[in-house]
């Protein structure tokens, strides 16, 4: 196979080949490909697809009954031990991204290295749990941060508003709606 043209990176390949190459590149160490926009796009698409699936899930199943991982109980216990006062209904980005927050999150996240697959994988997290994934309502977080916050939101009833809104919308579109 010929090497991509200089400066073209993965984009110099055809669309199908670029997608396959980018997907394969995700398994390589970051140093292997630098800041290739094609790889960044694959990460963004995968993160968005994950977000879409999750939002559809909490819209169709009562979130109180969801189990997101095999270690939800451990994640929730460790999360609330480390972040007992963190408001999760509407997150402040500073509580995730500021230097003091990063210092507090780092040991929490590292506890799940080897326990939660791809614990530090990039994921989208809603800031206001009563709203969907929009540009204004989304922050980039690690997978373990996503699990910690969303498990807590599910258990503490914060995501019930999404489920309730979807359930009400579905009942209004049914064949026999009264009102």
Notes on the structure:
The chain has 179 residues and is mainly alpha-helical. It has 7 helices and 2 strands. The radius of gyration is 19 Å and the shape is globular.
Keywords:
yst0336 like fold; 7 helices; 179 residues; globular; 2 strands; mainly alpha
SSE string? HHHHHEEHH
Strand order within the widest beta sheet: 1-2
Which homologous superfamily in CATH is the superfamily of the domain at 43-165?
A: yst0336 like domain
Q: Level of helix content?
A: 40-55%
Shape descriptor reads: globular
> How much of the residues is beta strand, in percent?
5-15%
CATH architectural arrangement of the domain at 43-165? Orthogonal Bundle
The main sheet comes to: 2 strands, antiparallel
**Number of discrete helical segments:** 7
CATH class of the domain at 43-165: Mainly Alpha
SSE blueprint and pairings:
Blueprint: H1 15-25, H2 37-60, H3 72-82, H4 94-97, H5 99-110, E1 122-126, E2 138-142, H6 143-155, H7 160-172
Antiparallel strand pairs: 1-2
Could you give a quick summary of the protein structure above?
The protein has 179 residues and is mainly α.
């Amino acid at each position: 196979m010929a090497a991509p043209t200089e400066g073209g990176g993965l984009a110099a390949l055809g669309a199908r080949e670029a997608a396959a190459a980018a997907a394969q590149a995700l398994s390589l160490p970051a140093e292997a490909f630098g800041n290739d926009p094609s790889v960044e796009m694959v990460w963004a698409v995968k993160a968005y697809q994950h977000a879409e699936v999750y939002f559809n899930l909490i819209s169709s199943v009562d979130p109180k009954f969801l189990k997101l991982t095999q270690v939800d109980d451990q994640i929730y216990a460790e999360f609330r031990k480390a972040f007992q006062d963190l408001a999760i209904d509407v997150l402040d980005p500073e509580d995730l991204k500021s230097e003091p927050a990063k210092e507090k999150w780092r040991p929490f996240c590292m506890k799940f290295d080897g326990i939660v697959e791809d614990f530090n994988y990039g994921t989208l997290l809603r800031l206001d749990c009563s709203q969907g994934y929009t540009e204004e309502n989304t922050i980039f977080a690690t997978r373990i941060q996503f699990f910690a916050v969303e498990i807590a939101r599910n258990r503490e009833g914060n995501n019930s508003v999404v489920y309730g809104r979807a359930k009400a919308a579905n009942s209004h579109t049914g064949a026999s709606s009264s009102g």
